[in-house]
Design goal:
The protein is α+β, with helices and mostly antiparallel strands. Helices cover 37% and strands 19% of the residues. Helix 4 packs across helix 5 and helix 21 runs parallel beside helix 25. The radius of gyration is 36 Å and the shape is globular. The chain starts with 12 loop residues before the first helix and ends with a strand. The relative contact order is 0.11. The structure holds ligand ANZ and zinc ion. The site of ligand ANZ has 18 residues, from strand 11 and strand 15.
Amino acid sequence: MEIESHVSHEQTAHEAAEKYDFAAIQEKWLPVWDELKPFATDDADDERPRKYVLDMFSYPSGDLHMGHAEAFGLCDILARYWRQRGYNVLHPVGWDSFGLPAENAAIKRGADPREWTYSNIEQQKTSFRVYAPSFDWSREIHTSDPEYYRWNQWLFLKLYEKGLAYRKASPVNWCPNDQTVLANEQVVDGACERCGAQVTKRNLTQWYFRITDYADRLVDDLEQLEGSWPAKVLSMQRNWVGRSLGADVTFEIEGHHEPISVFTTRPDTLYGVTFMAVAPDSELAAQLATGASEDVQTAFQSYLEQTKTENDIDRLSTDREKTGVFLERYAMHPLTGERLPIWAADYVLADYGHGAVMAVPAHDQRDLDFARAFDLPVTLVVHPGDDADPESLDPKATGVALTGGGRLVNSGPFDGMEQDAAVEAMTDRLAETGRGDTAKNYRLRDWLISRQRYWGTPIPIIHCPECGEVPVPEDQLPVRLPDAKGLDLRPKGSSPLGAADEWASVDCPSCGGQARRDSDTMDTFVDSSWYFLRYLSPNSETMAFDVEEARRWAPVDQYVGGVEHAILHLLYSRFMTKVLHDLGYLDFEEPFSALLNQGMVLMDGQKMSKSVGNLVEFASEMRDYGADALRVTLAFAGPPEDDIDWADVSAAGSSKFLARAWRIAHDVTSEPGTDAVDGDRSLRRHVHHFLADAPELVESYKFNVAIARLMELVNVTRKTIDSGAGASDPAVREAAETIAIALNVFAPYTAEDMWSMLGYEPTVAAVLWPTPEPALLVEEEVTAVVQVNGKVRARLQISPSIDPGELERLARADTNVVRTVGDKQITNVIVRAPKIVSIATAK
Ligand code: ANZ
Ligand code: ZN
């Protein structure tokens, strides 16, 4: 659908001066700002306190879109605001420019991923320039530059040295469409996060970062972020690590030398165990099946094949029919010695806990479903209390497991204990007898970082037939990507780099023999796990980041970005920060002190997309309304965390507001520097109340409320011009200057133009937020006169807005009035608030 341009840019010079013309204003100030570079932060002697304000960096998939406009617009409010509050603000920009989309687009078009990527970056830069976030452009980075990715390689080698990067063979998530492995984090509901294809498992040798070593800290340190990060993100991080506290319990197996270990979060239910279940795809299941009858072996094999096609989420689902194979084996209960049949069941996962469970069907739903499917016994051991429905006490009949608390029954010496006490007592008992102990478990798995694709950071390892894995010596970094020309980038299950023979074959750095480079590239989440540190010394050729600069600037004070990064990017950045801390490079352990998640920009209630046909293009909105109106519209739409439906907002309305504000500066006739002290007092009070209130609003992300207050100030100022002392009133100038200064936060072009019309040099962005005058903030007082029988008997200092009843009460209570009235009867009281109270008495 074609959108008509709402604004004609063809105006005469005269009209342009009279009318608010956003395009002319943009054209006027852009070159000035290019020249001034007002946001460069390179002065190490700058004494101002520092603030690091950062947007999640952009992926250059094409031009900027409305999502960028919102995220970068909101973040810029904070960057500009803090600068006006006297801070030295670092607000850098860069591109997350490695990754699959570039490669896929390149394959589709037969182009080079490099060309595609860098031309998109150019386009985004051009758009950013006009949108005008307060970036320090001198620190621009691209993760696909060798100057950047050599430090990914350096980081990899640091982790490798510490044993935090390692290679192992294991079943991994495999996307058959993209022909690459995926991290657990990239599998959403069993499908590839990017293309939606059903993910399968493949046994492959891959590189991992040992993030599980940091599991406890990744959970515990979230406490530091409480209140500064969205609660939802904190809980998503917590759930992703998925720490469970409980116990490990060991069960002897008849005719098998090795006992089974299980992890349970409910050691209190130990007497309720009626069978054991092991993951079909575990080593243990295979061992146990070997001794079974031929029939069982056959059944087990086919069950195993079926299991391999299933994903973890389905396997764990409670609303799924339970299947399994009895392995003709028995375990022994560690406390009662009871015989417990052992089953292979796919609802048990091989790589969680020990790949086996003690099944307590009375109190666990999946165990109960299984017990009902195969008619296994169900023993209630935690009684929910006397007021429980008696029927509910038979889970085998109801089909509903009792998962709540209560008192122990059928549990021998533990009977009558409260659940919490029982957990402890049971665990102690197991520990005493050497059959168990407290244990922790995590859902988190090590971070799989290798990818079989071209457009990424080559892994700096050389495989030598003699020496094995040999790290590329630091002085040979970067290992540059070979030219894409001549390489077949199409997905085929092995990295395209492997086919770049000349590139791949090298001499072993250790023995000098023939060796080959590792041909995988790194997950791009590695690039973004530390980029915020690179901005601090973006051009350093000797280090990833300057430790001194990091001490000065980091951690990031304010991070802004989408909630879609609530898990992966934030988790990896937090991990990398902790690793760098432990390596002695950083003196903090959390990278982002405060986080704001902006909502999405929707159209007609839906996510915008070309295929739905509801795409609002950033470029056309910029053409029709300009940067300022777009920014104000996005900030004014509602709380920044909420989604914005573009169908419900009005950029034209924002434009009108900006024109009204602009016109005030245009109308002011007093000279720059005029003292406002004799100006209209009521307008001055408005101005100073605004100056006092807006900071708190901006700092608590109530941008929409701050803009509403600014709109109100514009209206009051206009009223004063039209009705009061007029445009020459010094209070009008004070108001106009205040509006320009505040508008810099939301609409920098309009603000700069106003500032210039008011007779000042650019840039308004460097003007400090004025301090409100306390005298103009307190409630004003006026003098009310109290007469008794026509004679003035008292004067009261009161608020001009006092309520008449209150004024009368104060008048009657005045000591002088009380004395004058004496015991005479009051016959009449006339109250003219706030000026006069007239009391008449009987003679
Ligand atoms: C006995 C029990 C009784 C359990 C009860 C729960 C309730 P979270 O909290 O997620 O860590 N479990 C242990 N290993 C498993 C595996 N490899 N695959 C599937 N399930 C497994 O869950 C821990 C609980 O999940 C453990 O506690 C175990 O079942 C099961 F009333 O043990 B429970
Ligand atoms: Zn060698």
